[in-house]
Design the sequence.
């Protein structure tokens, strides 16, 4: 594959080939056609008639809970007919799109576009299906680099993206907006166990599966905010200094490809903020010494991608959400 190489203190990062770019764009466009239909279908509540004492009543059902709508009337009968017709139409529209995504998956894998490993990809898809990804939970750690690299059209080397964990950052300030149907009583741990039943809580603060893959659940250090998504035996989010800065930054959304070859949505912090936060983190005295060099390397790499490929300048005036701690570092990444 012929590539163009960019240099960061001796580092070379290959750009995507024209064939890879074409395939990625096709996958992203297909996903963009599929997703709004899937979101609408996912949000729909089944409607059904039930007869009681000689009269028919219309009910909706969600997560096994029946909700009465009213006794049969011509208006309700028409509403149900339109509801059923729309559901049928959505399934007709989605079916060929899903079939096409399945046909594209082996090609995506062959072209090495499936960068995010399958397990974290499945976790992000489930969170997205529950409307948790983006507004409530974002990707804050190393896996965020997969969003930045695909936006830039490059492939970051394994020394930067290889990881056996996923950092999920929860914006607990929006806790009251959560619906019970999104999370369930067993919260994030329950969601993880439905994807891989071997996940177990590790000291209550993160989850580890039988292969040693760790999901770290973190939140800002704002006191008074909840630390559990669910009401049962859920993971407790670890309060971490500096993560509020990532939550205050604009969200950065990108469609990427998982290790299974299927596209998915990833939501991460705005890349300049991510780079500045990583640089700050590399200098926190309590940070493990072995992690600091990688923090700084990731910082400078993401900063380079932001400037060179995404057209984002490191100007304080362009980033009003930055705290003073990160403002002090802007000059170093210009």
Sequence:
């Amino acid at each position: 594959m012929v590539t163009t190489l960019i240099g960061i203190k001796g580092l070379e990062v290959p750009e995507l080939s024209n064939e890879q770019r074409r395939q990625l764009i096709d996958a992203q466009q297909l996903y963009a056609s599929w997703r709004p239909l899937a979101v609408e279908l996912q949000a729909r509540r089944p409607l059904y008639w039930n007869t009681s004492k000689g009269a028919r009543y219309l009910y909706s059902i969600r997560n096994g809970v029946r909700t009465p709508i009213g006794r049969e009337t011509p208006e309700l009968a028409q509403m149900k007919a339109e509801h059923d017709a729309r559901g049928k139409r959505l399934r007709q529209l989605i079916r060929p799109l899903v079939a096409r995504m399945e046909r594209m998956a082996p090609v995506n894998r062959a072209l090495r576009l499936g960068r995010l490993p399958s397990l974290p990809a499945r976790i992000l898809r489930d969170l997205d299906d529950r409307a948790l990804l983006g507004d409530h939970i974002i990707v804050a750690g190393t896996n965020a680099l997969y969003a930045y690299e695909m936006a830039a059209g490059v492939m970051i080397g394994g020394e930067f993206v290889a990881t056996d964990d996923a950092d999920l950052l929860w914006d607990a300030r929006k806790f009251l907006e959560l619906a019970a149907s999104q999370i369930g009583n067993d919260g994030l741990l329950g969601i993880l166990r439905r994807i891989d039943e071997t996940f177990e809580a590790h000291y209550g603060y993160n989850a580890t599966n039988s292969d040693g893959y760790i999901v770290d659940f973190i939140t800002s250090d704002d006191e008074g905010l909840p630390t559990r998504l669910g009401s049962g035996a859920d993971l407790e989010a670890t309060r971490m200094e500096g993560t509020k800065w990532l939550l205050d930054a604009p969200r950065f959304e990108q469609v990427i490809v998982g290790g299974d070859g299927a596209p998915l949505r990833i939501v991460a912090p705005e890349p300049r903020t991510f780079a500045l936060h990583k640089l700050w983190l590399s200098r926190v005295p309590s940070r493990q010494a072995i992690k600091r060099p990688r923090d700084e390397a990731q910082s400078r790499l993401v900063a380079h991608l932001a400037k060179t490929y995404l057209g984002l300048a490191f100007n304080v005036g362009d980033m009003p959400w930055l705290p003073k701690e990160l403002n002090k570092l802007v000059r170093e990444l210009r």
Remarks:
- The longest strand covers residues 55-62.
- The chain has a mean pLDDT of 92.
